[in-house]
Amino acid sequence: MKDLKYQFYIAGTPEEVWKALISSESTKQIYYGSVIKSTFQLGDLLEYVGPGVDGDKTVHVYGNVLEYEPNKVLRFTHYPGKSYIEDDHAFESRISYLLEPIGSCTKLTVIQDQWKEGDSTYENSDKAWWMILSNTKTLVETGSTLDFGEGS
Please, which residues have CB within 8 angstroms of residue 151's CB and are 6 or more apart in sequence? Predict the structure, then answer.
């Protein structure tokens, strides 16, 4: 399966973009009410938890921290939440957030790779990343997120 790769240029410092990616206050706005939960220590659990099919504490995705360098790199394994796919470990991939200062802005590169053949979450991930990253850019630049309407 082809790697998913996205690059956005955001009018903000790497610190501002990083905060949007890892603070509960920001992820709750970007990820439709879900917050990121992790110690961010290598090997530790990372989860996106929020409203969903199992109520307010639905684990949407989870994995383990592979690399963490504040304002530069966050890399983790990615599994769909157990409430979505019974054999959630059948579909492992890897997500990388890479931040680089470019002039007075930040280049945010997101890569989701190491897909398992036949991963049923691939197409939905591709669609969702565009919305999530647009929300990230808009939040950093304006202080609010986009309204995608019901059912997004």
Answer: none
- Cα separation, 65 vs 68, whole angstroms: 7
The residue with tokens 């956005």 is: 8
Strands in 73-80's sheet, in edge-to-edge order, are 4-10, 105-113, 93-102, 73-80, 55-69, 45-52, 35-38
pLDDT of residue 150: 56
Q: pLDDT tens for residues 57-96?
A: 999 999 999 999 999 999 999 999 887 777 767 889 999 9
Q: How far is CA 31 from the centre of its chain?
A: 8
The count of structural domains within the chain is 1
What whole-number distance in Å separates Cα of residue 139 and Cα of residue 143?
5
- Classify residue 12: in a domain, yes or no: no
- Evaluate whether residue 115 is within a structural domain: no
Q: Which two structure tokens, joined as six digits, stand for 52?
A: 């969903």
- Using left for φ > 0, alpha for ψ between -120 and 50, and beta otherwise, residue 142 falls in alpha
Q: Mean pLDDT, to the nearest integer, of 114-143? A: 94
Match 């530790």 to its residue by tokens. Answer: 44
